[in-house]
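During the no-cost extension, the postdoctoral fellow (Dr. R.K.) reprocessed legacy sequence entries with the updated structure-token encoder. One reprocessed record is reproduced below for audit purposes.
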Amino acid sequence: MTTRPAGRRSLHLAAAVDLPDTYEAEPYERAVRLAEHGALDFVTLHDSFAAPGPDGLAVLSRLAPRTTRIGLVPTVTTTHTEPFHVQAAVATLDWVSRGRAGWRPDVSTGAAEARLFGRRDPADPVALWEEAGDVVDAARKLWDSWEDDAEIRDVATGRFVDRDRLHHVDHEGPTFSVRGPSIVPRPPQGHPVVVVDAGSPHAAEAAARHADVALVAEAEPDRLAAARTALRRRAAELGRDPDTLRVLAALRIDLSAGERAARPGHGGGPLPTEDGPLYRGGPVDLADLIADRHREGAADGFHLTPLDPRRDLERLVNATVPLLQHRGLFRTFYPGSTLREHLGLARPVNQYATAGERR
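Re-encoded structure tokens follow.
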């Protein structure tokens, strides 16, 4: 069995399992189980108020008991939604998956989407992303509002919880306030993983401040490396350890060409398009591209979106991933059971227990 040589920086791989116009559970299950077969860190499922489709968080909660190791990361729109309900739903996903949940905060900028909720038109993107960051902050406080040993389940006394280990978070933000505590015990991971698409300056700021994983869509290796450096630098300026931020290159893939190269030697990288960088070629050259970018330090890994959800995911898992494993660049098994363990991230310490607060 191939293992990663000691001292080598881990390569992280994730994939989108978006299936447009699909409402049945079985195709999603096939896709997620296939990605798990390839030992990918996590899958994402996009969701939006702007397009019809099943609720991403609900779909992945449905699939959690049918998978065992892969991380599950739905998009969760923070505009027009209640932060208390958002955090409870994400915490529930972490519980039903036994510690494999993440979430991808996103914002809603359209007036038509606002009207779905009977709300006024949304604010500008800068304010919306500031609000999204505030939701992440509030969610983490609410997850910490239960200490890990708050549940006592004492049958003799009829006490389910030690109230001294529950905390009011009293979060006051510009657009909402939350008193707490949560109605869901602290998630298995402490804090489910936050994934932010850093595709705009305001989203990049939110990623540097709050994300565990940032997605960067840059076709050129120098620009990708510069974006990773900038995110890590900004995270350090905000008081974070930059080594707690994973930066993945976001790449759309079209593997319809079989073994034909995207360009000779993959031509230095994918092509820029209006929808983001696009690789078109075969699984072997995709493996070379991933290996080169990782070796250069341009990214900590890749988040791959198949152009054809069924064909390209299968070729990724059954051809590209085995090549990376054979070269000793990617793991052949999951060394842990939680998404944080896959990403090499520590379980956060409870901020209220550390402060010794007892209310």
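The chain is about 35% helix and 15% strand. Residues 1-7 have pLDDT under 50 and may be disordered. The remaining legacy entries will be reprocessed before the final report is submitted.
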